[in-house]
User: Fold this.
Amino acid sequence: MPQQMHLAFDISWTQLETFWRLPGSWVGRGYPDIGLFEEVARTAERGLFDLIFFGDGTGIPNTWKDDIADAVTWGVAWPRLDMSPWIAAMSRVTSHVGFGLTYSSTFMHPFYTARLLNSLDHLTNGRMAFNVITSQRRSDYQNYGYDELVEHNTRYERMEEFIDVCKALWASVAPDAFMWNRQTGQVADPAKVTPIHHEGQFFKVRGPLSVVPSPQGRPVIVQAGGSPRGTRAAAHVADHVFAATKPIPFMAKQREEIDAALRAEGRDPTGVGIVWSTKLIVGETEAEAAALKEGLIQDVPDAAVGVWLSHNSGFDMAQLPPRFTLREVQERIVAANASPVGFVGLLAQQHGLDLELTREEFFQHGLRAATGYEHTRAGTARQVADYMEEVFEATGERGGFMISLSQAAPRAVMTNTVDFLVPELQRRGRFRRSYTGRTLRENLSC
Assistant:
């Protein structure tokens, strides 16, 4: 029997893309309409998806020209909501699909985060995942009182300790600690409720967590480190790795690097999947899918592209000279303690650091990255499934795909995935025909 994929919808972004302007989008419903999110949840569960994933950022992008004006004008990476209460509402209209919530270990405290996620795991009956990130976006830092970005490796050191503390807190109350004995009045066994007494480089936490253990014990941990240091951190903390789509040889190489890092941590690589962030457009015909794809890059101004590139790299792309090499851009990014991977890193992988570009050429590449056009697979269900199988087989058949979807996209983009692509994958034996697990962790292990 073929190895089966796991599928998630990534609806992290709202109006970043041009899709919200197309007929049939959700934007006219009065964003943020709770009915929108409930409809997304019902549709994902109808398609037997594992997870609905919500990335996050807490600042309006201002790295580009040190200003928020263009981000506000063109709707780049904003508005964005704290999804925890929305997940609560979505969980009430579903029974099986999981929910991935994002918080930054750079800014948050592990005790608060562990307690919140425990509560949400109870509310969803064991369907929570925690996407832990390190932040490299200047606008986020400024909202938490920082003047400069924290050094790259230090961010990952803090993240590793953050998750170590969270895991200790989630384990600080034993699953069988509570007795609720009506005869004696005894609520719980104190021997099974244990302070953690953590004192580390970044956090001092006594514990224990003041909660009832949740259905999963702890949420599924997702992490997306892509740099060498990020890969080591992912191997230390993650149950599943979230990774960007690249040419297939680069994805196969990343699988090898993560496997090596997992073995160095004493972990079995076969138990850790990579969920590839993928943009897919499925049409009833190839022409319909192609037309939807072209809508991604329709009338997108350079300013919107500049905002997106700057926000996600942590470096102001407005400072670029008329002509430059990718090496020069990468050096500036590293010097700013920003992200050395991402768009510029991927471009360098494909073309080499010595590739020389004009600003106009660079922004043309950036347009295709910012809108997802570059890596969007558009076609019939059969064509898209062929591509997914190729990637899945080349990367070890462990994990699956995180299908990026704007919250305001036309409904057909989502429903076509569920109504056309899922049956095609099921026909090939590559996707489940029913949920078999009780919790998200159980479904991801099937």
Remarks:
- The chain has 16 helices and 13 strands.
- The mean pLDDT is 91.
- Residues 83 and 101 are 7 Å apart (CA to CA).
